[in-house]
Amino acid sequence: FLPAAQWLITTRSWDAPAIRLLLARQQPDGIWPAEPWFTAVAKVPIIWGSPAISTALCVEALVAALGTSVS
Length: 71
What we know:
Elements lengths: L1 H10 L4 H10 L12 E3 L5 E3 L2 H16 L5
Antiparallel strand pairs: 1-2
Helix pairs in contact: 1-2, 1-3
C-alpha cells in the first residue's frame, strides 16, 4: 500500500483505486501497519518500516488527493 501512497503524493490527483487501497489497510485505531519502507543492500537484507512512517505517508497521500495542505 505504500506505493499507492507515494503515487498519490507524487501525482496530487484523485485516484479512487489507490485511495480505496489506503483506506482498506487503515487499522481500527486509525494507524496503518508497518510496511517495508527502506531496504539496505547487504548479505542479509536489512528491511525497515514502522507504523509511524506508514501512517505519515498515508495521511500525506490522502491530503494530497484532496488537494489540500496541512499547516
